[in-house]
Amino acid sequence: MKTINLSIAGIAVALIMYSCNSDKQAQLAKLKQKQTDLTEKIKNLEDQVRKEQKDPINPEKFKFVGLTEVKTDIFNHYIRVQGRLDGDQNAAVFAEAPGTVSSKYADVGQKVVKGQVLAQIDDQQYRRQMESLETQYKFASDMFDKQKRLWDQKIGSEVQYLQSKTTMESLERQISSLNQQVEKFKIKSPIDGTIEECNIKIGGVVSPDPRLAAYRVVAFKNLKVSADVSEAYSSRVQVGDKLIVLFPDINKQIETKIDFVSKYINPVNRTFQIETGISPDITDMKANMIAIIQINDYHSDNSILAPMNVIQTDPEGSYIYVVRPKDKFNAAFRQPVVIGNSYNGVAEILKGLSVGDKIISVGYQELVDGEYVRY
Question: How many CA atoms lie within 13 A of 239 on its CB side?
Answer without folding.
Answer: 6
